[in-house]
Amino acid sequence: MDGPETTQKRSGLASRSPKRCSLSSGSRPPSLPVPQHPPHKTTEGTTVPRSVRLPERDQVTSDPPEYDDIPEMAALRQTVSALEVKMPPPKAKARLFASAIPEVPEQRRQETALDRAMNPGRTQPRIANKTYIIRCGPFVKIGMAVDVETRFRTLLASNPFDLEMVAILPGGRAVERALHLRFAAYKHRDEWFREEGELAAWIAGGCQEAGG
């Protein structure tokens, strides 16, 4: 049996217990307020919600900037456009590049031999080689080339000293060999000879009687 004090404590605990509220079947819970965002106005004047469209400053464009407002960039753009107009098409550039390459005698001989093998019944024109005399200080060079002018330009580009074209003689390897044997006493090295004695007199006389 519980005494009066125990009964009083139980009644006090019961009074302090949380109260439960029950909703009837027809009642609804209170609704929370929904935050409202100000609408966004487009450049056309149409008002659309911000949840539908991003602001214009957040939009990303894939077009590169023009920089036409910078004078230097505008001038550079005009220069590039002018150069693109003046540049020849690819085929024309290839022809210009091929014409600028000097012809090599060995390449000419190989092409001639190949053409002769592929066309045995066709006669090939004979390559007209020439012998040249070039002066460089106290020395002269006795050499042979198909294109003497191109050979002279090549020597000018690779030689730090002044060169002078003394004479161009008809005939190729045979004439060159005959002159090398004739003036062997004045040979310095390779195709270079000292301009002395009989060789100097022969050059002063106009390089006559080359031989070969």
Structure description:
- This protein is of the alpha+beta class and 212 residues long.
- It has a domain at 130-204.
- It has helices at 4-16, 71-86, 90-100, 105-118, 148-158, 173-182, 197-204; strands at 40-41, 47-48, 130-136, 139-145, 164-170, 187-189, 192-194.
- The strands form two sheets. A five-stranded antiparallel sheet has the order 5-3-4-7-6. It has a two-stranded antiparallel ribbon with strand order 1-2.
- A hairpin with a 5-residue loop joins strand 1 and strand 2 (47-48).
- The mean pLDDT is 70.
Largest beta sheet: what is the strand line-up? 5-3-4-7-6
Beta percentage is 5-15%
- The whole-number mean of residue pLDDT values reads 70
Largest sheet report: 5 strands, antiparallel
The first-to-last residue Cα distance is: 154 Å
Shape: elongated
What is the count of β-strands? 7
N to C succession of SSEs = HEEHHHEEHEHEEH
User: What is the helix content?
Assistant: 25-40%
Low-confidence stretches are none
Instruction: List the total number of helices.
Output: 7
Structural class: alpha+beta
